[in-house]
Design goal:
Chain lengths: 357, 268
Amino acid sequence: MSKNKVLMCGNEACGEGAMAAGCTFYAGYPITPQNELISYMAKRINETDGAFVQAESELAAISMVLGAAAAGVRAMTSSSSPGISLKQEGISYLSACELPCVIVNMQRGGPGLGNIAPSQSDYFQAVKGGGHGDYKLIVLAPMSVQELFDLTFLAFDLADKYRNPVFILGDGLLGQMMEPLVISSDMRPTHYDKPWALTGCKGRKPGIIRSLLLGDGVLEAHNRHMQDKFSLIKKTETRVQHFNTRDADIILVAYGSVARIAKAAMESARAKGLKVGFIRPITLWPFPDKAIEDASAHAGKFLVVEMSAGQMVEDVRLAVNGKAKVEFYGRMGGGVPCEEEILACVEASLKSGGAAR
Amino acid sequence: MKKTKKIKKTKKVKKTKKVKKEVAFKNVTPNPASLRTVDNHYCAGCGHGIVHRLVCEAIDEYGIRERVIAVAPVGCAVIAYEYWDFDVTEAPHGRTPAVATGIKRVRPNNIVFTYQGDGDLAAIGTAEIIHAANRGENITVIFINNGVYGMTGGQMAPTTLAGQKTSTTIFGRSLRREGYPLKILEMLAILPGVKYAERVAVNSAHEVLRAKRAISKAFKMQIDGKGFSIVEVLSMCPTYWGMTPIQAADRIKNEVATFYPLGVIKSC
């Protein structure tokens, strides 16, 4: 096994992860801060037999992905917050039709046109729905350029395995920054048979891909089937990292780029002798509520840090279920919390011992 | 006397040779192989059933049933896959040409067509049809123009004629208030990516035959790799025009086709 070490920005690493996973179709629409990704895919896919389309809109881009996924290939689209709002129509259809694909959101400040600075305010949209109907996306939250590569590679396998769209929830900071990336030469995507794919009905009965289910009880049965699938994903695909939680008085919880800052704050706190732990969800859905519930048995407090007004904190509260205090510190509209801010919050919280704010 | 003789004759035939029964009931218009034999859910006098069949006849003519991937619209033809015996996918309303683009780009050897109504193609999907056409996607588009939203109860479509009464223009479409009927085929025809555009109708046997030729031609364009082809079909909606099927067929000739002229608009 040979390893290739390169310097890349997060958006490009995401694209390279897709190529390594055998992505042969990409459709997208320009929006900052994910533009390096669409340009990278235009270059890389056109070097292969795959197809790249710069779509007329995000609505069209996600629908092109729907077509390519229905035809059985590995397909991807990417955007940033306002563009992801437009994609919700297609995401609901892809989920309903059980079509595998990968959707990348390099979040920026919102609401509205917002700004082009990093943000985490699309957590609810990614994790709780976004489009209409009862569905779930597998939501992966990378925190480095390396993970943008690794988790995008994984995303394609998960999408095919469960016939479900997989969402990469990054942000402008991750997409734009450059870091060393190690690419192993022996990465091989897992092959999944797709007997449902539309390829022309030669030698088989005609295939139909649809979400319109009008018959009495048919849609309810389909929803039950989907919910069973989601239960299975929750059981098997939850991913989480935890550090120093055993003896912690307070546990920091953060994901994505904020997780790096929170981890650094935890290390500084430990150096000062403060008993601080850290939990980092890698899958935002399925959310690692078991890990958080278990930690709440011995830690009295949680401090959730996000670049939002407080979204993931609601899932932490649900997981803790009243067994510990859950506090929140957030920055909005492109504000990025620094290590000292988080450390100050931790110290204040440990001193006060007070209720959640 | 003659009558009884005839009956006797047939009885004799029945006893001796079964084959001769066919003479009495010869099916001169057998179902195309691509068309399923199922009950029709369309209203009496609706044009969709005719066009579904013409599409299947064209597909059978070229022997491409096993290569076809169709994209069904949202609207009255949303369950077109109940009739068609080949691969079909649905699409979000109006995104039909975008879905077809995704399929055709990854499976260029398949024959990909969309079947869209005037709400799907000329209203909510205007951007998708214009850009698919402008990219010169090698797909075929069958565009049904009946001037109303049938599935949702007969609201005004972009193609509704001036003065036409619909459930959202109860005193008739006002050009001042609702704007002009959209001649989208003429708009598309100016795009260099469009290689074939023809408007036909299905209000009479004569027009149906012309429609059949146009639909066949549109598929042939794709088979030959010529590029984007579109056939607009002026179709009847007696239910939401408030007419009998015969009145509706007459209206195509006397009103609709005078505003939307029939014939080849572009062929390269």
